[in-house]
Here is the input.
Amino acid sequence: MKVYIKPNSSFFNPVRYVLKIIEKNRCVKFELSDIIETADLIWDTDDDRSENIALSFYEELSKSSPQLRGGNSLNENLEVNDGAGRVDIIATIFYMINCFQEINPVESDLDEFGRFRYASSYQSKKGVIDENLVEKLIDRFCEEHSIIGTKKPSTFFISHDIDTIYGSFLQDGFWALKKMNIGVVLKLILWEISRRPHWKNIDQIIKLNSEYDIRSTFFWLVNKGQGLQGIKNADYKIDSEQALLKLVSESNNINGLHKSSSDMTINDELKKGKIQTRYNRYHFLNFQTHRDWNKISDSELNFDCSLGFAEHYGFRNSYGKAFQPFNISRNELHDFVEAPLNFMDTTFQSYLKSLTDSVGDTIIKMYEKNPLNCDFSLLWHNNFFTNYKYNSYLEEYKRIAAFIYENKIECLAPNDLIKRNRLEW
Here is the structure.
């Protein structure tokens, strides 16, 4: 299908970008043409055959206007309108997928750690955090233009943030004492004496995952102790744990950087930790999209998976797939792939206070609701592989792993997500 986009317009690269997203999403191809008469699809405000163009939206976007904040660009139906009140589907996709509601946040948009709050989002206000809205918009666009493409089965990306490996004796021990479970206390003491802390369980996680044909990614902190904003970084020294990183890589799993709460740059942390990786997740999900995406682009990284709300599971950018963000300040692509985080154990345990035995059902039902065109990202910390303080979260993980195995769902590594979702620009 041939496409004409008015050259040098404020919407040229945004429209081109969204069409590239649709190409990846549907396995179709658009051919950019400089001859308007031969085009099947036209974006040109001077042509009567043009697609709807929300010109004022693109002009505000180029200025990073505060009017974009918090879903202000969307109408009651969560759509971007042009000047005549018609829906611009392409602009709506562009706005949602790139988290433009998070541009220039004010203090009330952020929590005490500087993270964009779920309560500040249009997903919260409209109750659509579990809706893959971008996918529905792509459906609508393809139907309107008789574009027949292909959807692929949804996948999982499974990871483990390694924040603490020496905290079990105190935390599990305190839990056991409150429960008057002396047997657990004695086990913990024995493990400490034998220098086998209960949460130093990377080998057990690898063994468990291998039973379900799961290849996962482990994210490591390189800074120990108190970080910025009172956030606690690792309780281990990365230099002393190189054997664990070696175990991960030799077992055909993947190591990544867990960018700490510190003033160090990403590249400095990679160098300090001796982590041979280009993959990252921010510790505590403590990052801001349009600020820190620039930092990622300026680093050696080519993959990030920090884009999720700590307070709620679902789609932070209303899209189910990994994607390459757009840099509006430079009017070009960022040079890395972002895989949004959909599910995190601490979201259910600390924020939602979910019943533990409901967690697996929630995740499985969300997959069953979206069996196509989603790259579901699941984070399970190493300290949640326990039946002590984090009671039965191990069993919930096993339920999810069994569901993945029994339904032959593909589990992807970061490099797989990069290859499948990097745009041909």
